Amino acid sequence: MTTHDHTYDLTVTWTGNRGTGTGSYAGYARDHEVSAAGPTPIAGSADPAFRGDPSRWNPEQLLVASLAQCHMLWYLHLAAQAGVTVVAYEDHPHGVMRTGADGAGQFERVTLRPQATVTAGSDVDLARRLHADVPGLCFIARSVSFPVDHEPEILVAREPGSEAGSETAPPEPAAARVEEAVRPAPQEKH
Questions:
Q1: Fewer Cβ close by (within 10 Å): the C or N end of the chain?
Q2: Model-level pTM greater than 0.85?
Q3: What are the chain's domains?
Q4: Are residues 44 and 33 in contact, defined by beta-carbon separation less than 8 angstroms?
């Protein structure tokens, strides 16, 4: 098997100079912009606990988002390969970062809570098991030094015309047509 290097070039531009630069700790904003050729720039700042702007993305949120995005993308890939039809996917990840008295800190763990809705003909057990395969493949999860836990929930979409609705009722959005929720015990994977 051959290896391939993938490169990622960005520009991070500090936009928080209020006229005196970093002359004082409280005298500058933590605002910045993350950009790259192609995508819309991301308005960034520090966590509000560190004098950041809460209306802008902070690096800690982006790290948690990166883990959730990577997990989702690999999961969808594995589901497609395995014949599991996912029709909706949502995650509400949670990260825990601990700081010490000196102000330094690190992430202690991130918990992903993906909710995947699959078609009624899909194998629900396989849909659940695929989540356990993702950590060994996800580039971001493989690169961090803290645990990444998974608490997946698998929902099964109702087929149109099932007992939950009548023939004349307007169709519900796909994510709302849920017949069964399968929630396994949390599993830790990294």
A1: N
A2: no
A3: 1-57 (no CATH), 58-189 (3.30.300.20)
A4: yes
